[in-house]
Design brief:
CATH class of the largest domain: Alpha Beta
Number of strands: 9
CATH superfamily of the largest domain: P-loop containing nucleotide triphosphate hydrolases
Number of helices: 18
CATH topology of the largest domain: Rossmann fold
Strand content: 5-15%
Structural class: alpha/beta
Oligomer: single chain
Helix content: 40-55%
Order of helices and strands: HHHEHEHEHHHEHEHEEEHEHHHHHHH
Shape: elongated
Number of domains: 3
Strand order of the largest sheet: 2-5-8-1-9
CATH architecture of the largest domain: 3-Layer(aba) Sandwich
Largest sheet: 5 strands, parallel
Radius of gyration: 26 Å
Distance between the termini: 37 Å
Length: 339
């Protein structure tokens, strides 16, 4: 089943199959075609039903060709995460996602050791200790032999890669999504600096791990809940995605819910735009506009009716305080939208 959110159509589920040489050549030609200009890239975004502005298409075009990370800021629900997902589809690259949260550290983001496997091998070593140390002369030589096993325990065989390290190990490149970076601690940003500037990660026990061949295309998203450090911003292209204007939001709804009648689409977008001008704890995002369009379609509405709006207000407003504040204005807002 095809799923589209702000233009995002995910990959078909199923078993992987080998790609023939002709398919690989056709794929490379297609990617070369869509990345030859900003307009070609924007058109392909629209073919994937992600309706974007020239600024968004330009930022992705530069990120692709310059291989610079792109920091996408803006309010929740404007399509920041879906932009990375759609780019993954367009460039036919695997998507590796790191969801940020408070307390995120290198063990969850970069790598950790397979402690269970190390413990198992330690037990095996204990059982064969006599054999290992056989012929060793003195304490120093015995320790030297055991030290060799210590190095083995901290080799790549015992390394568990997490999203950032996985992204570097992808031989044909990938799209790396570092989602909601503003939810992570300031200290975590420092862990990202080497990755974002040189596409490499330093592991004390192993050394420096560089990108396999093609460096990843990196998208970082932020909902502006806190300031991002200057050091991180310097390493990234910057893109701010605001709430769309009336025309752009109507195009998004048309792409996402094409069955909805044009007049109803016009009215609901006008209503949403009016809500965003009000003093609310959380104004409706694009995803909620899409949900509301689906709701009205399901209820067989052909125009906005005050009672229907009142009954479905919880689809677009997520706080009871906002619902109560809007309730007294519904008749006025509905009338304005219908005009």
């Amino acid at each position: 089943m095809t799923r589209i959110i702000m233009g995002f159509v995910p990959a078909t589920e199923g078993e992987e199959r080998p790609v023939s040489e002709s398919e690989a050549t056709a794929s490379a030609a297609h990617i070369a075609e869509i990345t030859k200009s900003v307009k070609a890239l924007k058109d392909d975004f629209e073919d994937h039903r992600y309706i974007c502005s020239d600024q968004i298409a330009t930022a992705v075009y530069l990120a692709y060709h310059l291989r610079k990370p792109i920091l996408i800021e803006g309010p929740p629900g404007v399509g920041k995460t879906e932009l990375a997902k759609t780019a993954s589809e367009m460039f036919e690259l695997p998507l590796i996602r790191l969801q940020c949260y408070e307390g995120l550290d290198e063990a969850k983001a970069i790598y950790e050791w397979k402690y269970g496997k190390q413990l198992l091998y330690t037990q095996v070593l204990k059982e064969t200790l006599d054999e290992v140390l056989q012929g060793a002369k003195g304490f120093a030589e015995s320790v030297s032999r055991l030290h060799e096993f210590g190095d083995i325990f901290f080799s790549e065989e015992f390394l568990e890669p997490r999203p950032l390290l996985k992204a570097l190990k992808e031989e044909n490149g990938c799209v790396l999504l570092i989602d909601e970076i503003d939810k992570a601690d300031h200290e975590f940003e420092s862990l990202l600096l080497e990755m974002l500037s040189d596409f490499q990660i330093s592991i004390p026990e192993i050394g420096t791990v560089k990108a396999a061949a093609e460096p990843p295309i990196v998208f970082l998203t932020s909902n502006n809940t806190r300031e991002i450090s200057d050091a991180l911003k310097r390493r990234c292209l910057h893109l701010y995605i605001p709430f769309p204007d009336v025309e752009l939001e109507q195009r998004i709804i048309h792409a996402r819910v094409p069955e909805i009648p044009p007049e109803l689409r016009r009215q609901l977008v006008a209503f949403i735009q009016e809500l965003r001008e009000m003093d609310l704890k959380k104004v409706p995002a694009i995803s909620e506009t899409i949900d509301w369009a689906r709701t009205l379609l399901l209820l067989h509405a052909d125009s906005l009716d005050p009672q229907m709006v009142r009954d479905t207000l919880n689809v677009i407003l997520k706080f009871q305080e906002d619902i109560e504040n809007v309730d007294s204005e519904i008749t006025t807002l509905t009338s304005k939208a219908r005009k």
